[in-house]
Structure formats: C-alpha cells, structure tokens
C-alpha cells in the first residue's frame, strides 16, 4: 500500500492545503488517492521501461501494453493515455471499441492493415468500412466509439505501433470476446437471431476460449 | 429548403443580433442552420405524432424511432434525444452500442429481457454480462459505449419501450451489421481469426442481408 | 438501505483495482459510493416498477416521478435521467426550471398544453413565449434553464407523459414555490417591487401552503 | 458595423491557415465570425469605457451593463463575462436566473442585501433561502441556474457591484418578466393555479409594463 | 477543523441524502469536503472584506488577492473565481499564465498597460504581442493559457483592477519565477541554450530572490 | 491542397443529410470544412510518412513534427494529436507550455532529461521542479498548461520521442520566444523588472534571432 499513498491528483495541485491533507482518510478524486501537492514527486508522472520491449503476443497474435491512470496515477483527470502494440506475423488487434476515447496510431516497425466501421447510416446505406495499409511513420485515427482493428499482413515479420487515446481510462471492448465470451454468456437465442446463424453455431462460438486482448 | 432555414440553435438564443443574422449565408453550428432568435417558434422544438404508433418491425423483430437533432433541430447542443422501440413477439433490438451516449429505458408494454456487457477486465476475468427481465414501468440503464440489447421473450405479444439518450446525436452501431455487413466488407482473414471460426463461416455471415436496425 | 453501499460508479468500472477497493472507507465519486467493478450487478442499473402506475397528484394537479442518480446509483456521471409525469384533469406541472438539464417529453395519454419562455431579449423585445398543444406521441423540447410548464386542458381526462433530462441530477426549481414559499421567506419589500404589486399581495402569496411539486 | 467582420475566435487562433481564411464566406464558430489569427488585434479583446460610469437605473432601480461575447467577440468559447451593476437607493436587481452561468459578485460601493434560493428539496423541506448583507469588498456566489437577487437597502445612497459570470453568453431570465410579461402572455388559467391566486390578480400582473432589466 | 467541515459542494446540493451524510468520513468532491444540503448556509458562499482594501505590493509592485475555492468552498465545481489586483506606481503583475482559465479584467483606478502573447505561429511568423493601454472602466480579455501581464505606467499613482477567471481553481505560473526560481533549479545548461545567453547569466538570474506574486 | 476541401468532421458523421450538404457554402465546424458522411474516406483520417524520418533540428537542437487537425482534418472535435520529436546531441525542446493539452511522451531512441514546473505555491514555497532521466521505453506526463522541457544529455547520440497531446489543436508557447521574441516586442521596462535584470540584458535578449521550435 505504500506506493498508493504517494499518488497525486494534478487537478488539485494548487488547491489542497495542509489541513485538508492531514485528514486520516486519504483524499480521492475519481476513486484515486490524491496527495499533498508539496509531497508530489516525478515518480507520480513516470513509468519506467513501460514500452520498450516486445511482449509475448496472445492467441490472435497481438499484445497491447496500455499506460493509463492505473499505471501513472498523475494522469488522473488529464484525459490521455499511451500504448505500445506488438503484432506477430499475421497477428491482429481484433475488432474492438474504446467506449471513452479516440485513438491515434503510428507505426514504428512493419506494416499494418487497419480500418474502422462507421456507425449505422440511413437505409439503403450500410455501415461504411474505411481501411488503409500503414507503413512505418504513417498516422491513422480511429474515432471514439467506432469498431476498429489492426492486422499485420506480413507472414514473416512482426510489427509495432504506438497508439495514444484521449482518456486516462479509455476502456476497451473486444467485440468477439464481449459478444461470445462474456461471463455469464448471452442467451444463444438472442445471438442466433442477431447474427443470422443457427444456435449451434453460437454455441460453438461460445465454447471457444476467449482471452482478453487488452483492457 | 424553406424548413431548413427555420432551424434554430438554442445555444445562441441570446447571442445573435440582427446584423449577424442578415448575412446571406445561413449561420451554422455543428453543421446545422441557426436562426435569428426573434424568429424562432415552437415548431423548432416540436415533432408531431412522432412516437405514438407501432411501426413495422424489421427482420430481427424490432423498430427504433429515434427523435434526434435531425428531427428537431432545436435539440442542437442540448445533449438529449428520445426514442420509441417496438418489439415483435420474440423480436429483439440486437446487440449494439451508442458511441456518444448513455441510454435509459422504460417499458410501456410487455416484457423485455435486457442486458449489457462490461468492457474488458484484467485476466482471468472476462467481460461481465449484466441482465434483467423488465416489466412495464421498470427502468434500466445502458452505460455509454457498452454493448447492449433488448429481447422480447414473449412468443405472442409485442412489447414497447421508451428510451432516452444523453446526446442530440447519439449514433448507433449494430454489432453484427457493422462487423459482417459493412460496405465494403472487412477481410475474412481478419474476422476468421478474431471470431475463431473458419473463413467460410465468415463468408456465409457476410453473404447475409444486413438491414440496419436503426441509426 | 443496505444496498446503497453496493452502488457502483460506472466511470471507474475499468479503473478500480482491488487494493483500492479494500480500503475501509468506501470510495466515492460526486459524493456517491462506488463499488469494485467485479462486484457490480444488474440491480445497480435497475429500478423496478418505477414508472408504470399513476401516482396521486398534488394540489396543482400533477405528480412527477423522477428516476435519477438517487434511485439508480449506476447513473452517476452518465448524464441522463427519466421521469413519468401524471396530470389530473386541468392539472399542471407548474412553471419551473431545471438548473442543470434540458428536458425532452413525449405524451403517453391525453393532451398537454406546454410552453417555455426564452431568456431576456434586447429591448424593446420581451421574453418570448413558445407554446404548443401536444397529443399522444408528440415530442417537445424544453431547453436547459428556461422556465417551462405543462398543463392538461382536458376537464375530464388525466394525461401522462414520459420526460427525459440531460443530467443524472437535473434539479428542479418550481418558480412560485422558490419565490413565495422559501424557508425563510424572501423580504416582501424586494418581492413587491420586483412583481409590481402591493406588499400585502406578497404577504398573501407567502402565506399560502407551498407544496414542492417535484425535486 | 464593419468591425464586426474582424472578430476573432481564439479557439482557432493556432488552427486557421490562410487557405481557409480566403473563402468568400466568413468562418464562424458558435455563430460568430472568426478571423485569420495573423490579422487579429488587441481591439478584438477590448471594450473601452465599458464599466466606469453609473448608468440610469430602470424602474426597479438597477442597471446591468454586461460585457459578453456580443461586446467582445474574442470571448467566444472562453467561458467568462463581466458586468457592472448600478443600484439606485432602495433599488434592486430583481429575482432572476442565469441559465448557463454561475455568478460571483463583489461590492464596490454601498451595501447590498443579496440572496439565492436552492432548488426543490424532498418534502417536508422547502426551498431554502440563503441571504447576506454585503459591504464594500465582500464577495458572494450565486450558483448556476438558481434564483437570486440583489437589493440596495439604503434609502439615500446608490450601490455599485462588479459581477463575473462563468459563460461568454450567460443569459438572464428575470422571473417576474418571464412569467408575467412574456410575448405572448402565458395563459392566466395556468398562472392563477400555479401562483394560487385569482385570475384577475394574474391579469393585473400581466397588464403591468415589464421592462427587461438586463439580457 | 470546525470550519472545514462546514464546506458545501453545490453540485450535490440536490443529491445528498442524510444516510450519505451520516458516514463518519466527510464526503469530498475534487478533494473538498461536502456538506448535507439542508445544513448549508450563506457563509459557504461568502467571503467578508475580501477585496476592499489595498494590499502591500510585492517587489515587482503588485498584489493579487484571489478569491477561489480555497476561500469560498461553495465555488467547488462552479468554474469561476474573482481577484483584486493592486499595482504600485510603475508596478507590474509580471508575465504569467493561468493553466486552467481565461481572465477578464476591468480597471477600477489608474491606468494599466496590458498585453498577451499568442502561441507559436508557423514560420516565418513570430508569436504576436497584443497590447493596450487601459483606463478606468475599460475591459480586456486574456485567453486561457497565454502569457500576459499588466503594468502601471504611472510613476506617481497606484492602480487597481478587478479580474475574474473561468475556473474555481485557475492556478498561476509566474514565468520568471517558474523558470529561474524553481525548487530545485532547472539545469543552467538547459536554460542557457533556451534563452541564448551564457550560463553565468542564468546563474545570476537563478541567484535572485524569487517571490511568488500570486497563486 | 484540393483535398483539403474534402475533409470531414466526425462529430457530424451521423447527422448530416444530403439537403444540408448540397448548400453551396461548405459546412464548417470549429472553422474546418465538413463533408457528407457518405463521401468520407480513409484519407480523411490518415497522414502518410508523417513520423518515420528524422527531421533537421533547429538552433536549440530539436524538431517537433506535430500531426494535429491541420494535418488530419478527421481529428476535428476528437481531442487528440501526436508528434515525433527529434533531438540532436545536447539538443533540447526548450521550456514551453501547451495552453490546451496534457502531453504524454515515450522515448524511442536515446536518453532524455525531462521536467516540468508546478504552478505557484503559497509562500514560502516556490514553484516545484520535477525532473527525471528517461531511457528508451520510459513514459512521462506533462500536465496541461505547465512549463516543461526535454533535453538530450548525450553529446554524441541523437534521441527520438513520440508524444501525444490531449487536444486536436493543443498549441505551443515556447517561453523564451514568446517573452523575448514576440512581434512586436514586449516593453523592456516591463521585462527588466519581471526578470530582475538590467534593461540592456533584456535588449540583448530581444535582439537574438528567435526561431519558433514548433506550433
């Protein structure tokens, strides 16, 4: 617990006076512990060796290392976070949304096929899919709340990207996992009709092992 | 075009003076035409017979009639919209998200089985599914950006709900449609791996007719 | 009220880790108790039988049943609430404002004469009154902070409406009650001059019984 | 009014490049004309002799000189405005609300009796009236959307205050004027019941001359 | 500690019920103690004799008396604060920024030479300096985050201004103090290169006594 | 620059209908041209080869390549941008602020000595300087509006960082340039007193060539 008591909330950097900090219960904002501004230090805004090394990729061939308010408490209220994403050859960061953030991404190594789907359009239009092949140094934007993915089309080489998100706590919803791998499961009656398949297809899907790609 | 020129933006109700309104190009905010506040009238905040009648349900057995800033331009900047949802017997409003809004819903007629899935949790936890059976007068909340659905479990009777959303332009993303019915299609390589199925299952899914439930 | 301690704040659904939740003092956001996200359940987003039944109307002939963050703690930070309003024959929801919300309303039964008054305009203009008679299924918008009312003009039949507000805690200020029924009373010198009446008219007004229509 | 076309929007101070500014239609944000940042000058953030002189007070004995985005276009999007308020002996700034702003006030000369009324409380509580007598240099806060007033209790000396508001376009709703002096009038049936008086009292009130105190 | 426990947070004025206020640990929002709304009183929105008297000016000839959420806890979440600034003859409020607020200022006495510098422009443009001489009653705006100052050019007479800021906790960063007077000092290698001067010039600057003008 | 006229504003992705898009004047939000959502394409969210190559550093030894709403118009309203920063050996990104954004930074190559200065503290405290040496993969946060810098302490090797900012238009104010290199210059009387130096020191500073590091 020692380190938790050293967290600071920047929003109150100027506001907290000592009589407030002497209360026996720690002061919290958004559920996070704050700190007397005169006691804050650089470690409250720092995470060592966070994004330098490739991580082992998961079963769909990716790994997301997100540095958000859980890793750097000084981010509280500041509306930003950063991530490194590793992609195995032919690996993907599967279709997902961030319920509270837009994402901007740049490729550090390799090639990525990326895309997002717009929200529903008036009939007879369908949800529009916008995609692009990105090379090193290219930048792409995934607007808040829209379903998007990245895929490494190269069968031999890994890829690496840096992504930034417009929230200190963006959240992530991997579509396949949330729909077919939730605990408890969503009724297969509902899903069979929604996805226009037989119930046993849904049952098969729900029986897979759903590993969360990132949170 | 006559009606469009009569739209008002409430945010500037007090601010616009005549020399500004006399410009030959209409004033717009968020892309919508504004109106001199002295010329605004009650029709700019009104939609007749919007939500009283059952509508024909779609192939999954529901119909969403959303009254947003497209129907009532006076809603611009005001952060709210309202909808009536009709459900056929065994009909559903299939799993979807609103990228820019929380939804609160109450049942007017019939019974609904509703639920939402939380965002990804740290392993070994899975996305949590929270559900409830709602009867007439019950109220339920679907937090912003989370995947949710409503299903009418009654094989004989329709159901009706009123829902409100915390945006004048909430958007909707029907998951199955956005993932399998986009234009153009998402690569079946990507989707097969994401959903842990064979590519021909994806191809079959993509070959279905995907009708947008609502926008 | 034991269940109140199990309320959850959705904004931290992804953020709270166990060492934070084990603190002996409950975590609060906006003054409300939060909950470990793995312990949240559907009841935190649900209110049973909230809006199905007519309620006894007050002395001006209406009853507002508001479901806000006090009734459903999961609404915290989510910016929306919902209400059922019952109107006796010739009853009204008297002129009031919501200091923190826009309202959108639809009629479920009966007829309503509704209106709002714009804020002050440059002289010689006066505050503009915009009104409309609403029938079943009509939708009307009351912009944030403006004085508005609903009146059931039918001497024989009740009316019912569903309203949604763009805040989880919109507040309500019934004009007559706040001006003439406050505790303690506002000086009758001030009010007599403001309303251009004799002081004994003010005194008579202040002597009435002011029942709060809703909060 | 040539100078109106030279107004700048600060929010885009860094963003507009010349190819955007060369469009024949002026660029607007919130309905106000913007300006190429390289052409902006100090006059766009300045109003001369705005608040130095006493102004003639109105029939309730006050005058509000508000400097908002209409007077200084550079205020657009910046969320603040300032006002000088003059009070005749026994004059008042009558009960009013600002639908989009909190107000903070300090007395420059004389004495003021000020107060605000909280929003509706759960029964049996009534709207609470909080008041204070202010002398030179005292500071008081009127929270957003709440009904408040200032009254000069001195029968011989005027008073002066400076007030600031948390919006570049706060709006003002003088309660008596909006309720009894709107154009057109609110139905006296509605108002008689809301204010618990006879209709002829309402008619008498509506027949007064309602001069807008400020906008 | 008695007075601290009587602070109120307005945002929850309508929301807190007694079972919440009876918890043994005080409820806080933004790190400030809240109060049961039925126990709030006018003192929570009031500061006596805050801005009436000239204060002793500091070594650069000014004094800022800021009334923010630290002085009036009822300001919490309301987004505004107010200040009196005294200027000795030839005194200045030196170049500084407010990281979280726009400032609007009016002159009460004397004359002020004021200005702000825009943010960086595309080359070959330089940061633009906008300035103005203000007399009594003039109003000027300093946009959020931009470097600005006020200077009293009169060698014989003091000056006084009232300023309002668009945050209950605007913060202030006096440029010279933050750059040359921080604790610990910034490396003189870094500053010498940034300011294009010899290191001994930086060392001399850092050796001065840096008194904080205001916070 | 023809493609610039085809930029889209995502915020209205769902809202614009064709009759609005057919107006002869383009629709703008925040001063930027919007686009019919059915005509939007991936290029509106993409910038090729934006951040892959080292750029020539400026006279203080750095180069900031910022991808904001000027480079990718689809970023409008989405609240994020990204930058690559190159540092020559012993080069620095000199002390500066972002008036509208927090920055989060990770090192791609080399070593950086970074720091920021807190805002003014109550006497006798001084502005606190928090600093850290960052190696490859470390992450550091510079809170919104605070003065910060990065310096490459290695005399032989360059360094590279990726930074993200919590605004699509964060702005930058290089302190030395804004204070000493503005156009026109700030009065040396004012600056001499503020910085506690002789006027000829200020004159010498103002005579330097001030090249904008980034905008």
Automatic annotation (TrEMBL), chains A, B, C, D, E, F:
It comes from the Eukaryota. Its main location: cytoplasm. Keywords: Apoplast, Cell wall, Cytoplasm, Disulfide bond, Manganese, Metal-binding, Oxidoreductase, Secreted, Signal. The keyword Ligase does not apply. Residues 46-203 form the Cupin type-1 domain. Belongs to the germin family. This is Germin-like protein. It comes from Aegilops tauschii subsp. strangulata.
């Amino acid at each position: 617990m020692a380190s938790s008591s050293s967290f600071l909330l920047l929003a109150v950097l100027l506001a907290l006076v000592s009589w407030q900090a002497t209360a026996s219960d720690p002061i919290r904002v958004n559920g996070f512990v704050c700190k007397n501004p005169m006691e804050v230090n650089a470690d409250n805004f720092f995470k060592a060796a966070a994004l330098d090394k490739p991580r082992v990729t998961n079963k769909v061939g990716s790994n997301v290392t997100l540095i958000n308010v859980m890793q750097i408490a000084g981010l509280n209220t500041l509306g930003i976070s950063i991530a490194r994403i590793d992609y195995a050859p032919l690996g993907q960061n599967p279709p997902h949304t961030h319920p509270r953030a837009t994402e901007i991404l740049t490729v550090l190594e390799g090639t990525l096929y990326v895309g997002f789907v717009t929200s529903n359009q008036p009939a007879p239009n369908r949800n529009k899919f916008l995609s692009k092949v990105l090379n090193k140094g290219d930048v792409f934007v995934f607007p808040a709340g829209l379903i998007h993915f990245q895929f490494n089309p190269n069968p031999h080489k890994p890829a690496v990207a840096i992504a930034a998100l417009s929230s200190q706590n963006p959240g992530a919803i991997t579509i396949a996992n949330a729909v077919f791998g939730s605990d408890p499961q969503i009724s297969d009656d509902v899903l069979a009709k929604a996805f226009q398949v037989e119930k046993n297809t849904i049952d098969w899907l729900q029986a897979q092992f759903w590993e969360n790609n990132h949170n």
